[in-house]
Automatic annotation (TrEMBL):
Domain annotation Fe2OG dioxygenase: ranges: 195-284
Cross-referenced Gene3D superfamilies: B-lactam Antibiotic, Isopenicillin N Synthase, Chain (2.60.120.330)
Pfam families named among the record's database cross-references: 2OG-FeII_Oxy (PF03171), DIOX_N (PF14226)
PROSITE patterns, alphabetized: FE2OG_OXY
UniProt keywords, alphabetically: Iron, Metal-binding, Oxidoreductase
Family from the record: Belongs to the iron/ascorbate-dependent oxidoreductase family.
Descriptive protein name: Fe2OG dioxygenase domain-containing protein
One function term, GO molecular function aspect: oxidoreductase activity, acting on paired donors, with incorporation or reduction of molecular oxygen
Length: 344
């Protein structure tokens, strides 16, 4: 699954941003066209994302409204606040470590797990103003021995505990989503139980020209669900709603949950403050079919609107396209000709 070459010329945006004489952003980070952020006014106030209480989801069951087409803030999620605070401190400590220590986990040519910057898809592609650490955490046999097992003990132990708790939350959410959509439980478990899970820690340094760069290129997620934790009080996540980039405000002690490859989002950066985040992604098993629910098709008798791919193939196709602000769903959609040919 090593689809791309990592960026090797500049090892850290964080180190670049530390330079006292840095007043102009290097050209490789300057976006050709960065769409502006929505500015609220008296007639157009700032929209907010839905706030969902996990207790309400459990109590209401199949009658709940999961607002599947939106990111939402999840409160009363059940993950211990002291563990969350400890996890925040450990990620901050990781990025505060000397560059030599972080480079122990450096991205290698042809791989996409480890510490580094934007993974390039094309010659001349612009680079995000961020440093990241990404790794697969489940199935356990897919973990790279030079990454999580080689972490400092405090970070490794805390991350293992945190992932265990968020994994329970993620599986609960997937079960509730399936029930709300009237998808059979066995089908959801077959797809997601012991599925592919991964973690991304991201550091967005201050930038002398923040309006010229992006911290995270506009995109949609390939995951079934993403559970995002913001580590400090600096905002930066934005979602695209009706062509406008809307800032997302994080609530204290809440997660932001994104469901599927539905909503475009990006991250912007700050002129004077750093921002840090921790995302956990929940995907189907690599051998699972990704497409319209078989149980729903059987119940409704309707033709599928989207193609079905094996998850591993889906990921290859998803990540082989440049993140250009579009979802992958439009490529999966079946047109009338596909239906006609399949019926012949």
């Amino acid at each position: 699954m090593a689809f791309f070459q990592p960026l090797l010329n500049h090892e850290s945006v964080q180190e670049l941003a530390k330079q006292d004489n840095l007043t102009t952003v290097p050209h490789q980070y300057v976006q050709d066209h960065r769409e502006p952020t929505f500015v609220p006014n008296d007639t157009s106030p700032l929209p907010s994302i839905p706030v969902i209480d996990m207790n309400d989801l459990i109590m209401e069951g199949s009658n709940m409204d999961l607002q599947l087409k939106h990111l939402h803030s999840l409160v009363n999620h059940g993950v211990d606040e002291s563990l969350v605070d400890q996890m925040k401190n450990e990620v901050v400590r990781f990025f505060e470590a000397p560059i030599e220590e972080k480079l122990r986990y450096k991205l290698k040519g042809g791989e996409y797990e480890g510490y580094g910057q934007t993974i390039l898809h094309a010659q001349g592609q612009k680079i995000d103003w961020a440093d990241r650490f990404f790794m697969i955490t489940n199935p356990i046999h897919r973990r790279k021995p030079n990454l999580l097992p080689d972490f400092p003990p405090s970070l490794r132990i805390t991350l293992e505990k945190y992932m265990g708790e968020v994994q329970k939350l993620g599986m609960s959410l997937l079960g509730l989503i399936g029930r709300s959509l009237d998808i059979e439980k066995e089908e959801m478990m077959k797809i997601f139980e012991d599925g592919m899970q991964s973690v991304r820690m991201t550091y967005y340094p201050p930038c002398p020209q923040p309006d010229l760069v992006v911290g995270l290129t506009p995109h949609s997620d390939a995951a079934g669900i993403t559970i995002l934790l913001q580590l400090n009080n600096v905002q930066g996540l934005q979602v695209n709603k009706d062509g406008l980039w809307i800032p997302v405000t994080f609530l204290p002690h809440a997660f932001v949950v994104n469901v599927g490859d539905i909503l475009q989002h990006r991250a912007v950066v700050n002129a004077s403050k750093e921002r840090l985040s921790l995302a956990m992604f929940f995907n189907p098993k690599l051998e699972a079919d990704v497409g319209p629910s078989k149980s729903l098709l059987t119940k409704t008798g309707k033709l599928p609107l989207y193609k079905t791919l094996v998850m591993e193939q889906y990921l290859k196709q998803f990540f082989s396209r440049k993140l250009n602000g579009k979802t992958f769903l439009h490529k999966m959609k079946i047109n009338n000709q596909d239906h006609a040919s399949s019926s012949n």
